[in-house]
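Quick illustration, no need to memorize.
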Amino acid sequence: MRSVRIWRCLAGWLGACLAATSLDALAAEYPAAPTRLAPGVYARGAPPGPPSPANRGRTNSTGILVGSTGVVVVDPGPSRAEGLRLLRAIRRLTPKPVVAVVLTHAHPENVLAADTVAGRSAVVVAQARTYALMRDRCSECLQRLIGLAGQPAMVGTNIRLPDQTVGDGVTERVWGGRRVRLVATGWGHTAGDLVVFDVASGTLFAGGLVNREVMPDMHEARIRGWLAALDTLSALSPRRVVSGERVAGKRAAVASGRAEYRGDDIRLIGMTRDYLADLLARVEATYRQQGSVFEVLADGELPRYAGWVRYGEAQPLNIQHVYAELEKEDFATR
């Protein structure tokens, strides 16, 4: 069966990806201090993954919203140590307490600092499917991250499941005087994707659904759902977008050694969508002609995106994933 060959090939490519990808040198470009994007709105960038001892597992952006009485954190990070670093950074911004921690999806790099950052007084919130994923696999994910980032980076890290969950659609909450919309977009990047839209500033924290010049991670994705999710994000008309993974500045111009994170405009959503649409079109054209996955791999380059981080490793993996999705669609309709 073609799907068996696909997943065997996928496993081989995944091993090559983890062995060959090295982005440790980028870690120095990302300051520990959050960057102010708007009044009360901050983002803390991180070098794009994979997790390693050099980046201590911190590979995704973190959002900080300072309200009149408290602080909301979006995606607190991978570990107790990084959670403590984040809390120190927040204390330099404000003495107000953290009152809510929002998890946009269930990847360990995003969620494992939740216990440290939330403490005893803040609520941890995620989409219901993210809760289920964390419940079922967080112990395994913690061990995986220890293996990648190293034991010293992960000492004292505890798993904390969300205290509250939200369903599909839009949920509006006010935490610490800050009004946010939690938008569950359906299964795109992961089964439980959730974005956070700060109403006052028009800032969208897009989680894993949007990257800047970094190849999307598709190992849990549903590509058609992801495309639909990006249309949902565009309809929010955000003033700025905070992506999950991003290249600092333009990578070539970090003149002072600090890569300021100033946020990106709505065009970033379109960039991610363009890649996914082009990928689907390329794979589907060969699949509908009864071509094998190996034929797509042989002619699956998308030169427009060749400069994105992880392109060489991720593009073959993404091709195979989309091909398998198309097979599943066909099997489901028989």
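Residues 2-333 form a domain with the Metallo-beta-lactamase; Chain A fold (CATH 3.60.15.10).
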